[in-house]
């Protein structure tokens, strides 16, 4: 399986660490809604098909990526920074190079 | 010359004699022989004993699919079992033994199993040995008792116990086109792709390129096929963009067009060349793959089809044409298709007499009749073989009239004398890799075979793999596939011209001849046609159940010979067409893979090591090093004659009496910096860090999201926006990822940067009543008195000219200081501290003494923060801030985490003055007749020099409430039972007066 890191390009899955279901929503830190916390900590989707996942490029730039992966075929249809902050990330990269 | 060796022909070098042994007897062969061809040339017919019935077995095939002739190859003390004799290239000194026989191959006591044939059917052992419903050997106990004997009687080769000293290698390769298989199709594909400029890898599991061209006897481009193949391979060698991999089996097709291959580099050599590994494990990423893997000939299922001397037709043809070996002198042929006629002619031309061609089909083409005439063979059309005769070799066959439409036999059986019977049940394309790649195979009624599915990954098929069984088709498809895989179109040029025997590729739909006697479907697992029908009668009709119940296709050959016949028999029993019964999906590996190759370079010398800056000093000064994860740390600095316990007790005692120094460079260190660093730490730790003054440190505890304890350590505030976090050695990586995840995914708005600086700092912890005096003796630029450097304070100064950062904190419970310097100066500062400590009796201490002092103090480590304990369980609830939310705060108070009955941290004192053992269980009372449940277990233990007792930390149910009571340890594994007292985990100096000074 290859994941195309937006920073580093296509890399083997061995460089990445799976960091869980990308559909989880963390409640507000002070929230006392135990159901919401329970859903966040324990409930996981297990679709046969496209799945939103978080992967960290731990053997590379260490960015967290939002990856849409088909669990049946391992086809990856999209990869984005989990921060959702593409422009800032790209700018950061350009500055780093200059 | 051997009795069965022809005078000329084949690829072997008759001038080079090679000597080897089989079951201790010496044999000779020629360069180019396999073990199978060499033994056949010597007249050997008996190669092994079968799995269940211990029936004598010969060699069935000439290649990777061999189910019968499995042997054990010995190299020194190392034994490798279950190797197909057809895949072993002989070399001088090769030592091979047969398998599954006692006391010898030709006289085997378990062969009596054959007499009980009706009994030993599918599921026999489980049905018979399940045991009575009551009593001491009820149900599975009886099975477990019998299993030992059953396993010994059934089976294959025996694994060795000597360590494998061979070296294995891994390779990663990338290419535009990977061509799997080097028959005419593969050679053409590789050439066509290479001519387009593509980077090509051509893999061939056999030693020589060419596949069927090496033995088909066909003429290609006006020359013998073998010469054409050798020329084509030779030309490919001249290409810079082509890599040729002989003896390389592509065994796995994974997603992303990633393929796994095993190259057998030196198995065929007497000894490996310098630097050569035994096997090389290739991971190949190919933009496109050409599957030119050919096909397997299928056996026919009829009584006695497993007798030594019964062989696949093409295999015999190959032995004759490629190795110059005749598997028999009087050869009969049994077939349901045209391909066997070419085999007949080849064997006739090599010098054998073809006594009969038994064909299930009543009508034969004139071309086949002409081929038979040329082979001087009598055709028995509309006949079938119904029995074979002989013991350890074939002596004859019986044939009867056969009606292909209803399978009925008629007329009297007729005997024919023969010492070899060749069978051909049609051909199955080798679609394993395509099936692994994802899609379902499709049944083709004309070919009576599963053809490759539509590609779900980037591959193109060519040749027999696609069901195109003629060489001319293979050549055309191969070139087209190579061009297409390389993305080229190429001007149409003339294809090599093939002169081949005629033949219809479609067999008659006959798989089994039903007559009395055992008809084998799976030779290797001794599964008969009757076993398949039994499975049907007992309701195991799904193809997956059939496979598991009868073990059909589950032997090391993975059903390469038995899959289709087995399916056909089940389909007939069900009254359904074969495609409705379905087939199982092929899984990697295609053929057996050495475990050594899978583990290559992941163990031994190439395992990474992490060494602290002071590592060499420790080794030079008598430390016994201990591997902790990837780190190496001093365990003890033992004196001559000391036991480990004596050494650590001396080190710990000296530290508490004067001073000790320990290397703490392995602690995880993370720089947490930025305007929001303090806020971030407040969210990450259970306690407050925003209130921490610059120049001070604080002990912190982290929880996981689910509220359980995660890690602890001190964090130092070096500046307003600059923190240095320390973590436990084992959790350094996990904590770093934890922090990064929250900063990147959950709280991207926080302006914080985290950097791992573990390797940037060298750390030495110096503690004990004399520690401050030692430090004062060597530090410049700062005072270290109570006012300047209070407990948890930080100062900067220099030791021996090198800048250091010192924090006064304590793990040992003594007044102690952690001295950090740049990693490059670690040894320099360490030596300066040692020198300064000499007048004060400073000792170096290792992990054992460190552990001892932490147990005396009741501090927790990974043994207690084990992923199941909460902060409360560890009596760290004082660290849970109520003023702010933090990671885990919402979940930590869940019902089950605060309920009574949880395991809580306690101390234990051994009351019989005997050592305690880590992992031992704790019970309320020892009562053999009425054993008590465990109430907890020991997490860490030592001899405490401070208390003069054996003590331990333990997690005990409701432990806090049990303080002051007695319990017992129960450790049957190590036969250690004894009374203990449950006490507070703070054994020593509970109010901390020593470290506060």
TrEMBL record, chain A:
Protein origin, superkingdom: Bacteria
InterPro entries, alphabetized: SoxD (IPR006279), SoxD_sf (IPR038561)
Gene Ontology biological process: tetrahydrofolate metabolic process
Gene3D superfamilies tied to this protein: Folate-binding superfamily (3.30.2270.10)
Molecular function in Gene Ontology: sarcosine oxidase activity
Protein name in the entry: Sarcosine oxidase subunit delta
Species for this entry: Mesorhizobium mediterraneum
Classification of source organism: Bacteria, Pseudomonadati, Pseudomonadota, Alphaproteobacteria, Hyphomicrobiales
From TrEMBL, chain B:
Key words of the record: Oxidoreductase
Pfam families cross-referenced by the UniProt entry: Fer2_4, GCV_T, GCV_T_C, Pyr_redox_2, SO_alpha_A3
MF terms (GO), sorted A to Z: sarcosine oxidase activity
Top-level taxon of the source organism: Bacteria
GCVT N-terminal domain span: 614-884
InterPro entries the UniProt entry points to: 2Fe-2S-bd_N (IPR042204), BFD-like_2Fe2S-bd_dom_sf (IPR041854), FAD/NAD-bd_sf (IPR036188), FAD/NAD-binding_dom (IPR023753), GcvT/YgfZ/DmdA (IPR028896), GcvT/YgfZ_C (IPR029043), GcvT_C (IPR013977), GCVT_N (IPR006222)
Domain SoxA A3 as annotated: residue spans: 517-601
One annotated GO biological process: tetrahydrofolate metabolic process
Domain FAD/NAD(P)-binding: 176-442
Residue ranges occupied by any Aminomethyltransferase C-terminal domain in the UniProt entry: 905-989
NCBIfam families registered for this protein in UniProt: soxA
Sequence similarity: Belongs to the GcvT family.
Protein name: Sarcosine oxidase subunit alpha family protein
């Amino acid at each position: 399986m290859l994941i195309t890191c937006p920073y580093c390009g296509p890399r083997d899955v061995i460089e990445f660490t799976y960091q869980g279901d990308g559909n989880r929503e963390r409640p507000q830190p002070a929230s006392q809604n135990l159901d919401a916390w329970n859903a966040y900590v324990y409930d996981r989707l297990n679709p046969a098909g496209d799945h939103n996942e978080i992967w960290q490029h731990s053997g590379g730039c260490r960015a967290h990526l939002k990856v849409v992966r088909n669990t049946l075929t391992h086809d990856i249809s999209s990869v984005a920074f989990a921060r959702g902050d593409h422009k800032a990330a790209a700018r950061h990269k350009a500055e780093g190079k200059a | 010359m051997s009795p069965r060796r022809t005078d000329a022909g084949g690829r072997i070098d008759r001038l080079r004699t090679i000597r080897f042994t089989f079951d201790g007897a010496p044999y000779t062969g020629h360069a180019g022989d396999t073990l199978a061809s060499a033994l056949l040339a010597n007249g050997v017919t008996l190669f092994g004993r079968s799995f269940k019935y211990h029936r004598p077995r010969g060699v069935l095939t000439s290649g990777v699919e061999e189910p019968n002739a499995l042997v054990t190859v010995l190299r020194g003390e190392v034994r490798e079992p279950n190797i197909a004799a057809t895949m072993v290239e002989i070399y001088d000194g090769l030592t091979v033994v047969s398998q599954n026989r006692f006391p010898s191959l030709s006289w085997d006591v378990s062969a009596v199993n054959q007499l009980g044939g009706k009994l030993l059917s599918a599921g026999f052992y489980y049905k018979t040995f399940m045991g009575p419903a009551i009593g001491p050997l009820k149900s599975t106990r009886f099975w477990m008792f019998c299993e030992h004997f059953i396993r010994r009687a059934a089976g294959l080769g025996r694994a060795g116990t000597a360590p494998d000293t061979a070296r294995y290698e891994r390779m990663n390769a990338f290419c535009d086109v990977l061509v799997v298989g080097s028959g005419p199709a593969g050679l053409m594909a590789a050439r066509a792709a290479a001519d387009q400029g593509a980077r090509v890898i051509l893999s061939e599991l056999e030693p020589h390129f060419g596949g069927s061209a090496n033995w088909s006897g066909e003429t290609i481009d006006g020359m013998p096929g073998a010469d054409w193949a050798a020329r084509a391979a030779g030309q490919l060698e001249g290409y810079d963009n082509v890599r040729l991999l002989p003896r390389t089996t592509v065994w796995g097709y994974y997603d992303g067009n990633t393929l796994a291959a095993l190259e057998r580099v030196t198995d065929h050599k007497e000894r490996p060349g310098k630097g050569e590994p035994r096997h090389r494990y290739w991971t190949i990423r190919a933009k496109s793959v050409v599957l030119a893997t050919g096909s397997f000939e299928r056996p026919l299922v009829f009584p006695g089809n497993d007798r030594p001397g019964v062989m696949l037709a093409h295999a015999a043809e190959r032995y004759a044409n490629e190795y110059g070996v005749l598997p028999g002198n009087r050869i009969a042929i049994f077939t349901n298709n045209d391909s066997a006629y070419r085999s007949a002619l080849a064997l006739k031309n090599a010098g054998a007499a073809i006594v009969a061609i038994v064909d299930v089909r009543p009508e034969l083409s004139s071309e086949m009749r002409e081929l038979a005439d040329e082979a001087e063979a009598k055709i028995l059309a509309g006949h079938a073989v119904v029995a074979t005769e002989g013991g350890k070799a074939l002596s004859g066959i019986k044939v009867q009239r056969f009606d292909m439409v209803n399978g009925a036999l008629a007329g009297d059986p007729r005997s024919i004398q023969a010492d070899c019977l060749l069978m051909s049940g049609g051909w199955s394309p080798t679609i394993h890799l395509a099936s692994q790649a994802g899609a379902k195979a499709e049944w083709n009624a004309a070919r009576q075979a599963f053809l490759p599915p539509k590609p779900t990954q980037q591959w193109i098929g060519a040749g027999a793999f696609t069901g195109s069984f003629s060489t001319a088709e293979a050549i055309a498809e191969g070139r087209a596939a190579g061009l297409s895989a390389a993305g080229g179109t190429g001007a149409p040029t003339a294809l090599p011209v093939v002169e081949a025997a005629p033949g219809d590729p479609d067999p008659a739909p006959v798989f089994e001849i039903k007559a009395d006697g055992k008809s084998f479907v799976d030779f290797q697992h001794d599964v008969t046609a009757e076993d398949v029908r039994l499975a049907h009668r007992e309701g195991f009709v799904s193809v997956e159940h059939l496979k598991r119940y009868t073990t059909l296709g589950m032997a090391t050959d993975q059903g390469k010979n038995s899959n289709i016949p087995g399916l056909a028999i089940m389909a007939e029993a069900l009254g359904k067409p074969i495609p409705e019964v379905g087939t199982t999906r092929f899984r990697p590996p295609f053929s057996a893979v050495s475990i050594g190759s899978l583990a290559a370079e992941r163990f031994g010398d190439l395992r990474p090591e992490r060494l602290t800056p002071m590592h060499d000093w420790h080794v030079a000064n008598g430390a016994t090093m201990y591997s902790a994860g990837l780190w190496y740390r001093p365990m003890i600095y033992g004196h001559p004659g000391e036991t480990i316990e004596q050494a650590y007790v001396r080190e710990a005692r000296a530290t508490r009496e004067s001073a000790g120094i320990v290397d703490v460079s392995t602690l995880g260190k993370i720089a947490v910096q930025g305007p929001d660093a303090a806020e971030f730490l407040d969210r990450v730790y259970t306690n407050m860090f925003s209130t921490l003054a610059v120049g001070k440190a604080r002990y912190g505890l982290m929880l996981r999201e689910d509220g359980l304890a995660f890690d602890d350590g001190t964090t130092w505030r070096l500046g307003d926006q600059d923190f240095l976090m320390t973590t436990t050695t084992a959790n350094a990586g996990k904590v770093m990822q934890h922090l990064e995840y929250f900063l990147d995914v959950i709280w991207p708005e926080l302006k914080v940067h985290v950097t791992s600086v573990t390797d940037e700092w060298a750390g030495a912890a110096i503690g004990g009543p004399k520690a401050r005096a030692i430090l004062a003796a060597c530090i410049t630029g700062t005072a270290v008195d109570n006012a300047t450097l209070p407990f948890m304070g930080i100062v900067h100064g220099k030791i021996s000219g090198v800048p250091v950062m010192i924090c006064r904190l304590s793990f040992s419970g003594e007044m102690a200081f952690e001295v950090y310097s740049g990693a490059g100066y670690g040894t320099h500062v360490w030596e300066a501290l040692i020198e300064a400590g000499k007048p004060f009796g400073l000792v170096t201490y290792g992990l054992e003494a460190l552990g001892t002092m932490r147990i005396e103090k009741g501090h927790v480590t990974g043994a207690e923060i084990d992923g199941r304990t909460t902060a409360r369980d560890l009596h760290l609830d004082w660290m849970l801030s109520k003023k702010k939310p933090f990671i885990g705060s919402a979940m930590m108070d869940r019902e089950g985490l605060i309920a009574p009955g949880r395991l809580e941290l306690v101390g234990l004192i051994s009351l019989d003055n005997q050592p305690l053992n880590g992992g031992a269980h704790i019970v309320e009372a020892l009562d053999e007749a009425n054993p008590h449940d465990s109430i907890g277990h020991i997490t860490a233990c030592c001899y405490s020099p401070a208390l003069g007792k054996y003590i331990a930390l333990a997690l005990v149910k409701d432990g806090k409430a049990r303080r002051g009571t007695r319990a017992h340890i129960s450790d049957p594994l190590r036969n250690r039972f004894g009374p203990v007292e449950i006490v507070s985990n703070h054994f020593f100096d509970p109010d901390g007066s020593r470290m506060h000074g």
